[in-house]
Inverse folding.
């Protein structure tokens, strides 16, 4: 049986209020005060834990979330992985949930089904989304085989990673609540991958 690679999947912290219930995707946004506190709590959570490698989406909200984790772990810069950017919501980018519901006659919380079915105009095709994340994820696993790896990225990206590693349909991953500032832990082994923790929020312990 192959070596276990433990992957800590960290979702960035809460974003500025003006982006709440907005299809942000590729929009650059900063952390809110709450998000900054969540990031500090993540730093406390990882302090003293052995992590061998650190990766991060290039987007501002993930890099701001990484900063206190890096300070706690004595790491100045993570590996910036372009493949871990959030999905491009196409024509929905910047629209509120209510705007999308009114214009498209659908419930915003089922966006993952619409993305999977290719129904969001000019959005990143689901096959392309899967391909770029799969490529980045499995190349990272190959480089870091048998090590402990931390990745700071996005809710949609984490759902796609879980779908890939756990061999679950992407359209059903909306059932997984991936909170802001949360940690999910996967022990990757082929065969035998296991989810050890899903969406643990250290900031709730404050």
């Amino acid at each position: 049986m192959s070596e276990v690679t433990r992957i800590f999947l960290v979702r960035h912290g809460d974003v500025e209020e003006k982006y709440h219930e907005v299809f942000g995707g590729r929009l650059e946004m900063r952390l809110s005060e709450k998000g900054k506190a969540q990031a500090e709590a993540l730093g406390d959570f990882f302090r003293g834990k052995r992590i061998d490698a650190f990766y991060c989406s290039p987007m501002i909200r993930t890099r701001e979330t990484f900063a206190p984790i890096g300070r706690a772990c004595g790491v100045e810069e993570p590996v910036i992985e372009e493949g871990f950017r959030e999905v491009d919501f196409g024509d929905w980018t910047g629209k509120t949930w209510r705007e999308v519901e009114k214009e498209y006659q659908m419930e915003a919380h089922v966006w993952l089904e619409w993305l999977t079915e290719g129904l969001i105009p000019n959005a990143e095709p689901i096959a392309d989304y899967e391909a770029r994340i799969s490529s980045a994820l499995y190349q990272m696993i190959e480089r870091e085989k048998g090590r402990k790896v931390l990745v700071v990225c996005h809710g949609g990206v984490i759902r796609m990673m879980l779908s890939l590693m756990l061999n679950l349909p992407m359209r059903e991953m909306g059932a997984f609540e991936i909170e802001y500032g949360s940690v999910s832990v996967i022990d990757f082994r082929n065969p035998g991958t296991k989810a050890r923790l899903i969406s643990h929020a250290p900031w709730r312990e404050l």
